[in-house]
Amino acid sequence: MRLSHLFAPTLREDPAEAEIPSHRLLLRAGFIRQVMAGVYTTLPLGLRTMRRIETIVREEMDAAGAQEIRMPIVLPAGPWQATGRYELYGENLFRLTDRHQRQLLLGPTQEEVVAPLVAADVPSYRDLPLNLYQIEWKYRDEFRPRFGLLRVREFLMKDAYSFDRDEDGMRESYRIMYEAYERIFARCSLEIVIVEADPGQIGGGVNHEFMARAQVGEDLFVECENGDYFADTEAARPREPEPAGEGTESLTEIDTPDTPTIESLATLLGIEPSRTLKCVMFDVAGRSAAVLVPGDREVNVNKLEKLVFPEKVRPFEDEDFAARGFVKGYVGPQGFDEAVTIFADLTVRGGRDWVTGSNRQDRHVTGANVDRDFRVDRWEDLVEFREGDPCPVDGGTLHIGRSIVLSHIYQLGTKYSEPLGARFVDEDGAEKAYRMGCYGIGISRILAAAAEQWHDDRGLAWRRALAPFQVVVIQATADHEPSVGRSERIYDGLVERGIEVLLDDRGESAGVKFADADLIGCPVQVIVGKRGVDAGTVDLKLRVTDERSTATLDGAVDAVVALLEAAP
Amino acid sequence: MRLSHLFAPTLREDPAEAEIPSHRLLLRAGFIRQVMAGVYTTLPLGLRTMRRIETIVREEMDAAGAQEIRMPIVLPAGPWQATGRYELYGENLFRLTDRHQRQLLLGPTQEEVVAPLVAADVPSYRDLPLNLYQIEWKYRDEFRPRFGLLRVREFLMKDAYSFDRDEDGMRESYRIMYEAYERIFARCSLEIVIVEADPGQIGGGVNHEFMARAQVGEDLFVECENGDYFADTEAARPREPEPAGEGTESLTEIDTPDTPTIESLATLLGIEPSRTLKCVMFDVAGRSAAVLVPGDREVNVNKLEKLVFPEKVRPFEDEDFAARGFVKGYVGPQGFDEAVTIFADLTVRGGRDWVTGSNRQDRHVTGANVDRDFRVDRWEDLVEFREGDPCPVDGGTLHIGRSIVLSHIYQLGTKYSEPLGARFVDEDGAEKAYRMGCYGIGISRILAAAAEQWHDDRGLAWRRALAPFQVVVIQATADHEPSVGRSERIYDGLVERGIEVLLDDRGESAGVKFADADLIGCPVQVIVGKRGVDAGTVDLKLRVTDERSTATLDGAVDAVVALLEAAP
Fold this sequence. Notes:
2 copies of one chain form a homodimer. By secondary structure, the first copy, chain A, is of the alpha+beta class. Helices cover 26% and strands 29% of the residues of chain A. In chain A, helix 2 packs antiparallel against helix 6, helix 2 (44-63) crosses helix 10 and helix 11 (481-496) crosses helix 14 (556-566).
């Protein structure tokens, strides 16, 4: 493709509205243009990269046995009302009415379409498992679209849906998709973190996010400094400490007037908060439960909720303490009867001779020890993650990283098939709801994430897998016929070798061409100018590393092919 | 692909809602499923055929120098208000408001997006001509969606837009697209009619429609029985008759009481209406004009409007006759002064000795002859086409045909660039509005039109160009291991040869498999059953012609390849 012909308008200046590198550079390099807030036109260069991503995704989905279909964008509201998401999505859902006043919406995801589709035509267990996917634009009316292709209102997604007879089948379908996703992201050459995640509005059970590391990312995750542990911030757990051993102090009640908080207690006694044992009270399905954590840590209520699901968790309110005989601010686990379930976080194993509440107003105890002075019914992971916590795998330091979530996969169970009546006839003749999984990948998000991972201050620096063109041949001396002729021959030679090449044949100065080549970011640059051609050579440059080399005029095509094969 | 695995649910019964073959068969053969009125999911077989159409279109557009981009579906209303189409489309436009109460719409076409895009980034004449296209879903809130994929609310379209400096450039861009379209439809193997057409709501000047013949089509056109003339019903013109020569009668005024219509006059005189000369009066930009046609024909006002454009045409009302001195019902062209422009349709040349009005109440003349008794200022094509008219090319009989419009291309001029302020800087430094062309092809319509042209009472009968799979290998005796094994080897052999093959490996009866093979309609069927395999043969069948042949087991792959190469 000749650059003189390509619709790839580059911008010299940084667009004022662009806050992050991918937004700024995709605009400047002529990959995208904004139509309105959060809605973009994809220009030829952007479309080429998007198509590469699509091709990788499609090939891996097909190889994993999924089948491509195409579902509508404009959808009837009915099924969404049946699953409750018509309300749940709130203002994030684009709603409209047609000329006959029927309520419609623009699909943000497609469980409500695909489940009835499969239920209508696959009534038998013999046709399972089944996995259907599509690559189509999705809609979400973001309150404040920003960050270019990262927080948008229209985005291209691959969404797949698996249908199985039972939980085992669903888990197997999930495993197959998980592994396909690992291959997809490896082929995209992206630096990815996979974490177990929160299901959010999609709901269901086990789920994972595939995140691209990015300094500007809005999505946080936890990682070990040694790279052997990754987790969602909600799910991260610190390493279980070495047991502290038996207590050395005896249980002693002390006067601690006006110390209902850990802070006031530690100050009064002149000790670290970590020496105290916090005893937090909850109502779990009508019964009392205590959660023990070291005084310097917080209980992660989500973790407790997951532990006791489907039972409901509610923190004690003032009247609960009074009504159930607990002294607020001075609760300790000693002497709790069997009616109270005592949970302890694993970190509590690392302490002994605790200071904790005495269950009497304005008094605490010292020297409280597990088993000797109070029992624990369940040892569990129940604390909030803290920056700097030790890694559960190797004890290394855990840090919070920033990323862009590219993909979220879910085991949905019957969450959608049940309310939508999406059933099949099982071997025993009984009608059963499908076990579903759903598997998304943001295609347009990958484009942005790649631009975030692959750029420098001069522009984009594509890896081969997603580059819009592999090579740019630059006519560095536009008015020097011999070098222009040579550039054409090298261009033709590369095209013959099946390589996607851009030829910068514009009447611009060498400086403008070099700047645009660095901005657009094709992996290999071939610079054909008067000085080189007079000396019988062309210059080659690897965009990512800035490594330069020369090749003879006749050896240029082979040299480019070799360079490209070795390029990242 | 194994049919046991493919999501291609076939239906035994005709769906009640399907009125035409393509709708009925695309549903029954598992190509599409309805989600709501006029909105469909495309299943794997349908998607494969749609992708083939897309590929042909994309290759020919790229070869013609057009560049692919992708524009949004959800659009801001502003530019549509600027061009007036926000109102003009009326209830056919899907409208919505976002959470910030901004007016949006779902794009039915994209002039309002692409013109500002190009104007923002291509300010120089040096970057012209430019042709940008996309393949994307379009929206139209049809009052009564029906006929499957023919009258829908969501449809896949290729839309291209050309930008030129001047009218000559625009015409050249149009010619390039016209020829690309001829290649596209030839490659699709569709039987196509190209007619000059009415611009409709898109507006502009020269435009053509590419129509697929179809008995169920809603779009009418005129064609000669000898296949050498095609036209839009509005534009069709009959052959100019042989001149009738000089008159033999003298001009004679006769009493014709109470005969203000051709019918009453012909009845009174006992002559054919075609012997009378009708003189129809119009106001053209404030002046009087007469249009002469034989008494048995009607004036086509559209043709007159096009002739005098941009002047406005209005048929005479009662008061015009009185005010301008014409006797309504008795007007004849004799003695009209130069202030009246006299148009005559070319068919008037075929008559002489006309009976026409005498310009006096209740009186006509006989023996009126052109030039001798009245003048004609302009000989033009001005009659309404009539079924059975002679062809202008060869005199053969013209008939009205039915079709499905697949494509409409337009020379738009500055119709959109002007109101949208889409300008470039020309060589002389002046800012000028682009000359645009627009070029649509209905991808999902081609799918339906192909199904209309290629089916019989047993099902679909794909031509190779658009077949979802080229070959189906049928295991006709599912419980006979040797023939099942043979079918697998033939299947593998065909796949190795790069052919897209379906293997019917289901546990169904031979009858069900044969019926489904005819229903889905792959061009070549390979039937591998016990009887044949015992005799060392397989049966081959060409779906379109129903021709059957046999091949040896070892020669089966070669025989299929040869058969396929000869298949339509």
